[in-house]
Amino acid sequence: MERINRRRFLAESIRGATGMSLGMTTLSMASGGVVGANNKVVLALIGAGRQGHKVITRMTKNNKNVETKYVCEVDSRRGAGVIQELEQIQGYAPKRVVDMREVFDDKDVDGVVIATPEHWHALATIWACQAGKDVFVEKDISLAIWEGRKMVEAARKYKRIIQCGTQNRSAPYGYTAREYIKSGKLGKVILVKVYNLLHGAGGWKVPPDSPVPPELNWNLWLGPAPKRPYNKYIHKRWAKCWTYGTGEIGHSASHQLDFARLVIGDPPHPKSVYCAGGRLAYDDKRDTPDLQAITYDYGDFVMTMDLTDYTPYFCKSAPDIRFGDKFPDWLRNATRVEVYGTKGIMYVGRMGGGWQVFERKGKGETTKAEVIAQEHGRYPSDLHEANFIDCIRSRKMSNGDVEQGHYSDTLGHLANVAYRVGNKQLLFDGKTERFLNSDDANKLLKPTYRKPFYIPEQV
Fold first, then answer.
1. Beta bridge pairs of residue 197
2. For the chain, N or C: smaller number of CB within 10 Å?
3. 290 and 265 in one domain?
4. According to the model, what pLDDT value does residue 320 have?
């Protein structure tokens, strides 16, 4: 069995954690906000939910000379825990603010972590770039294809670091998988299968609109979205509503789509997409489907994704796999990627899990699949966050740069648009980022905004 040279790749992974390797291209950037003379990095958190809490506390605790000055949250019921934990880490409590624009106005802030609902991601990122801040933005980074392109334009125009919350971009085993495929040992890759087979939360009955809770600034929560009365379902289950989220494909499956692109060499946009699906398990009138069967045509290979929100018999990788030297039970793994070459098949796990290559051995009744190459993998969040901090200082392009994030998130947007216009096959022009055979689909390229929370054509 072939094994990757672990000592060599450990050295590469350490350099990758400081923005020096992992196959990333360097990008010359002049820093708008100046990191302090003592090399201190000052951060702010925007959106104090569970994910934002985890990311900002790890960044502050695990990286030297990093402090968090602000926690921005529109709901006063959230944020107390992360403020208390940050106070224990750094010796003083961050200032709590409600409006993110107060953070952007502070020249002391070098970078922001954006962990709001998805409908805020693009505008908050662009505002941060315009204010001279670097950005760590959670996935999906955008609500629609047009938004993602504007984020790329803002990053380049204002020379900002944007690290997308696609942590697998800092996983060393992803790059050994890519090296193996590039070597030709798997043969020609002509099919990639991506899975997101989750158990879901069952059906949901939408409650009637109700008064805004006194602890919540509903106007700022809505932000770019159209004004509407408060509804608990929208507030708590925003990811399931097209106006505020991208469904399960953005909430979870975007990790696998991005990782699949990485290991096969980061291809640009596909030529077409077809999506069949619906709310078939739970007829509860929710916007986003509980089943999507998707096909992407790249010309010389095909990528598929099966996404479910009702399958409890599949499991994500357990902690002993994500943090240890174990491989998943691939056929029961809920979030695997399968790469089919003409010589063998590679299974890849996301957020830890590593990869294995199988080939057929023997003849006739004695034929069996045998592992011929493999590499264990670890949960990469610490490396990804460390890479962001280092890139703030070094001005090198981050591992999860916004352009690759845009290409990957576009896959989810393509599938959702195909579903929303009637489960159709849509032809896509990757250069103009527009559909060739559907005016209805092109109407979904850009969200509807309300002033003053809108993204202009010229960022």
1. 308
2. N
3. yes
4. 96
Cα–Cα separations (whole angstroms), residue 255 to 138, 234, 302, 418: 11, 24, 18, 20
DSSP string, 194-205: EEEEE------P
| Residue ranges of the chain with per-residue pLDDT less than 50 | 2-33
DSSP 8-state code for residue 298:
-
Identify the domain containing residue 344 by its residue range. Answer: 1-21+172-380+402-444
CATH of the domain at 210: 3.30.360.10
Burial (CB count within 10 angstroms: exposed 0-12, middle 13-18, buried 19+), residue 21: middle
Structure tokens at 250: 């953005």
The residue among 343, 355, 22 whose CA lies nearest residue 183 is 343
Contact 262, 178 (CB under 8 A): yes
- The burial of 227, by beta-carbon neighbours within 10 Å (0-12 exposed, 13-18 middle, 19 or more buried), is given as exposed
Cα three-residue angle 422-427-428, rounded to 5 degrees? 115
Predicted local distance difference test score (pLDDT) of residue 220 = 98
Q: Based on the structure, what is the number of domains in the chain? A: 2
Residue identified by tokens 């051995």 is 361
